[in-house]
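Narrative progress, year one. The postdoctoral researcher (J.K.) led the effort to move from monomer predictions toward full complexes, under supervision of the PI. The following entry was the first complex the group processed end to end, covering 760 residues in total.
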Amino acid sequence: MGSHQKGEHGGSSNGSGGGAVVVDKGVDFAQYFCTYAFLYHQKEMLSDRVRMDAYFNAIFENKHHFNGKTVLDVGTGSGILAIWSAQAGARKVYAVEATKMSEHARTIVKAHNLQDVVEVLEGSVEDVTLPEKVDVIISEWMGYFLLRESMFDSVICARDRWLKPGGVMYPSHARMWMAPIRSGLGDQKKSDYDGAMDDWSAFLEDTKEHYGFDMSVLTKPFSEEQRKYYLQTSLWQNLHPHQVIGTAAIIKEIDCLTATVNDILKVTSNSISSITLENTRLSGFGGWFDVHFRGSKVNPAQQEIELTTAPSINNGTHWGQQVFLLHPHIDISEGDDLSLSFTMNRSKENHRLMEVELECEVKRSSGKQLPPFRNKFYIE
Amino acid sequence: MGSHQKGEHGGSSNGSGGGAVVVDKGVDFAQYFCTYAFLYHQKEMLSDRVRMDAYFNAIFENKHHFNGKTVLDVGTGSGILAIWSAQAGARKVYAVEATKMSEHARTIVKAHNLQDVVEVLEGSVEDVTLPEKVDVIISEWMGYFLLRESMFDSVICARDRWLKPGGVMYPSHARMWMAPIRSGLGDQKKSDYDGAMDDWSAFLEDTKEHYGFDMSVLTKPFSEEQRKYYLQTSLWQNLHPHQVIGTAAIIKEIDCLTATVNDILKVTSNSISSITLENTRLSGFGGWFDVHFRGSKVNPAQQEIELTTAPSINNGTHWGQQVFLLHPHIDISEGDDLSLSFTMNRSKENHRLMEVELECEVKRSSGKQLPPFRNKFYIE
């Protein structure tokens, strides 16, 4: 589920796998979980028709996975996936929710007369104790660009603790995608940044003149702070397919049945993208994800369902795409190739936010190679 | 200093006086302090000419308080008050700052060649250790409507630990004010709320029709959540003096030399306000504050300075005023009187945010009394 979050100071400890940092649970709740306690936020996600249809179809077109089975819903929110699992025939559903939204989930379960099947448990899935292992783990855990929020860590933990051998994951697979794009936003953000720096200059002069207080030693850190804010922070956008100017590349593939936290701590990828539009500009890159509901090899889905957040005219989702802008843009045309090196790590200050390094080399259709450039970005 | 802050879940412990709750320091840092680590935020406060002039004049027109003396600056931020104290002749200034902004303060101190006088200490003033007690404690601690952010707790702690007997506080006094106002915002917020509820109804129907998922049991909690957000949360406004429709009343007075945390945990006041505008509407109430720099009785200021955040055409501040709106407004006219009962407590979830209860009785100039009404508000 995509949610807005300020990137702020915080330690970390989640005890869910090698290499993970220590997350302070109080800080984690104050910064992250609490946003999900708002009904307005749940409504936003429930109103995402593409999202809801995918899970609805995945469940009801694969009732064999649910009928007479036990299910764990990680991060049940309003309880909808748990209720659908019960309606698809589940014998028992454990619906775990860390926030007080669990009380609303319990109310809705009762309103649907499913309290004998669906048991809502308030707490984190790392801490909760179930009376039995389950056949299915279902969860809508995806953040912007898939891994923002790092909620999949919790799903992995739930899987390792509670999924029976031979059990299935819903969704079963996930992929991250990236493509070169064009966008007017780059110029706008550069203009905003320049405005902020002009403003700073005027402020410096005013303050020096009026109070004899000289802050010019802070111009460099201020420009870094503003640069990060205006130019280096990825943006939420609902891209139009026409903005995608070259071939999209898969930069990460995840098998939800076998992935470890270590597998997702650091995402690295080298890919080539061919420009497909004539005489255009490379403004930056758009990142998105898709997930699939395929069941497992030994227990496959009867009907495979896909949920994609790729740029779309009619089927946009609340996730949008994450946009990484270059300053300045690069003039580019059909036949040019981009050699892309992508690295994503978790922010040291907040394990639910990301830092990205993009290295890009343009090879013109003429054969000429531009010097490679590397940019740092922040997914906040 | 006024700053925007999401009101979120968090425990609390600050050990600064009887009755105070336990504040989790990690959560407190993640929710509150961190916003002050941004240069952009410091710039906003430094750009507030009314604020800066008041402190500048308070210091430089009362050099006798600083010359050859020791000073503690609580929450030094960029270091400006500490530097001014040194420039006014202080022998030694301890500039305490909880965030990494302290590093910038140290840089600026050095740029002004004052590192032998001004010592910047990173840490909370509750934890820091000074080599000596001080003659003056200076701090810009005021939040929206004075007490939002509860930073004065830290100033009290600093005073009790580090101020010499006979020492002075800068500022020395503070007051909270309230007045009846008119505003077009009330209608707007009501309209936004109605829109949100209409939207919810449509959402309920859609979800029920499309997925057989009935969330009508959540209409009541959703409406409460939206009501709190649109109608009961105080708003930041820069009121025009023409919007003040009746006499303003002092609802709290603080002597910074003697106040205890207990004195400010709960603010209660009964006051009368006379309407001064004919045929107008009571849309709600505006709250603001002023502080004074008077020194102490035994060591008074030579030049008393006032910093007020009352509604003003030319001398507005970044604090604005806090506006508490009534729904619906009340038609009112010159000669009518308002009997106002005001209570403000700290939020249980976050001691830096407030909950307000306003009880109001209108007595018409005719003598007729309207039934009293009571409203709850949140300062987030």
